[in-house]
Amino acid sequence: MKTRNRVARRLVALGLGSQVLLLLILPLPALAQAPAQEDFQPGNARLLTTDAAAVIEHPVLGLQRSAVPLLGGLALDTSLYADLLLAPNLGLRWAMAAGPHRLVVGARYTHFVGASVYSSYVSSQEPAITRFEPTLSGPTVYGVYGLALGRLTVQGEARYAHFESSYLSVTGAVALNLVGAWALIGEVGARLEGGSRLRAAAGVRYGGERFGLALGAAYVDLNDPVFPGGLPVAPVLDLSWTFR
Amino acid sequence: MNRILFACVPLLLTACSAEVFVETEPIDQAVPVTSLLQPVYAEVAIDVPPEAQGLDIIVQQITADLTVVNPTQALTLEAGVRLSLEGQATPEEPKLYTSNTLPEYFTRASVLLPTQNFAPQSSKAVTIDSAQTPALVQAAGKERIWIIVNNTVKQVGIGAPPPFPVTILLEDIIFRAHVTKPFPGIGGGLEVGGL
Predict the structure, then answer these.
(1) Least C-beta-crowded within 10 Å: which of A199, A231, B10, B53?
(2) CB-neighbour burial class of residue A110 (10 A; exposed 0-12, middle 13-18, buried 19+)
């Protein structure tokens, strides 16, 4: 475990370090003058496993995030995935863009209502288990700061949640709009609480004017004894439709 | 339980803990009595259902229900029950001891049911609760536990005693467990779901 943590720390340091290095090496003025990500729309303002440093300007229906913008950069949002898993959640998100700077802060509350449904299913599959009642209720708060440098956006996210146990992570991410509405995305960070230390994800996101799609893989390292041999990697899939 | 929980991966990706209630199928166990007036110790092994094993569970409560039946026509049995986390018997083959051959771990076994009289042709329902008997909690997480029954034929009714061995029956042994299964290390599951 210590070795893994040490490796994780190094990888995290390497990831964050490489972003800093990238910023130093890349000719910033040239990037600033590069075409902005006009073709890549923020859609539901998600990258792969983190919130994007972007303003949600239009109502959007998406699996990871659905949202309705209000006034002044505020938006009401929810994770449709969690809603579908009977963990309804509602968040308030505020975002602003000033020059190349992007700032997002948000909070969400999740209230799980599916205990009896899951219990019925598990009991029907395994009669020895008379009741199986999962719990998942609690608040989440997060903040994202990003720097939009033409086709490249670099951002950092901090996220804290408290359900039955605490979750805290910090994550750096880059999104590089290569061609059309497609962006390459890389995320690397650390879970300080609530999971194995290293978190990372890589994939692509299509941010069209209306349609949005993300495909990728995330290093989640679910190491609970329930998962024989662990579950190191989970797929990332997000679909969204923006109403303009 | 692993198989079932693994089938619920989408759920587990969002759950942070779960309250799990397990009830085992009723089992019967016959305990032989082999001598008169001298205590006999019978050790029987019970395999703990996988649902109540390991998995980093937090035991909230375990109860054991059983009915002690003395089927003999004329023998009053003085019997008590202990729970041991060590033993030599297997589920197929009980072990019998006398006072002279009693294994040293007998003294470490926890008393589940204090020694008491069971009249001929009587049955007595017994509930053992981990609230009163904390040793039961230790049974969770073990693959096998041992029940050691001490038995003495105290009183013989009119007429000649029946040929040994006779048996005392532990019927409808049912374990009920209420455990909390935390999932402290599944933050990664929250992330891919957008929470």
Answers:
(1) B10
(2) buried
